[in-house]
Hints:
368 residues; mainly alpha; 3 strands
Amino acid sequence: xxxKPLWLKWIYCLTPAVLGLLIYFLLPFFPKFTEYAITRGxxxxxxxxxxxxxxxxxxxxxxxxxxLALPVILTxxxxxxxKIIRKPNKKHTFEAGIRFxxxxxxxFLLVFMIMDGANFSRMPLGKxxxxxxxxxxxxxxxxxxxxxxxxxxxxxxxLPEDENGCCTLTMKKGELLKLADDVYDNLxxxxxxxITGTTKVKSVALSHWWSYTGTTGVYCPWTGEANVNxxxxxxxxxxxxxxxxxxxMGFAKENECNFLGWLAxxxxxxxxxxxxxxxxxxxxxxxxxYKADKELWRxxxxxxxxxxxxxxxxxxxxxxxxxxxxxxxxxxVNDTFIKVNGVESGVLSYDEMVGLMLRYYDKQGLLE
Length: 368
């Protein structure tokens, strides 16, 4: 049988990468097309069945892949080198190995763009939700922060405490993670596009070590799996889980997932999630208010109950124990990844949920 020419073999290898790059460079110019043809079309078609199947597996597939990646890659390299040494046509064996690696990386890029990268170019969430878009003042932010402080304090009263007086869950962590999709039920009645294929988020066995990287949750586009760090304080789990579920719905931008996570927690009717959502949103808004007006920040923080303040202190103490070069390096990598996908603010985009919250409060008539 006549062998295919070398140039044709390379075309087969690189075609997925070319398609992925076309998606990367062209879709930002066509947000409406991306929204309906890609996110609500191709993404749903491919991602939802995969998310559903992966979510049925009781452990984190993503974690297994990460743990085994290095030894598997090293083993394959050794096998490849041995073949090169043993085979008479060393050049052909070498080239075949390079083409295989190129094909794998090329396919990885295309899958990423379909499962996550393209979603950075969909219509902005604020536009989908028809939120007003205008300039807001420090006083507007003060109103939101005060409201979140009061709601967090009220929600905190519904939850139990540990021996140190810090908040604990009303259920086991595994049960909480299974409810991450259900917490969106009420929102889905108003926003039909808030759907996902997954049934739950996964706990990571190496969660404690994840904290050294500053990671609380990860959506893996190659598996369609939502993962959370269950070593973090209990009152952060709900919002983190809801945030990762938002990624499985096709929202790639961190500020939008943070906002949707809060809104789902606030309206889901589950006490553990309700407190987690308001607690997390308060932190973001409070930090933003502190930068804008310290006097207003002091006035807003006075609305927090002593119980919430204790949880805040405990949360700060927890993360203080993990600060170091590993966390800094991890955050730098994450910052680069976000910027490469067109979000210029990088990791600061997590904080940009505050803008969406102001717009949402405005639409609800709560800034008057």
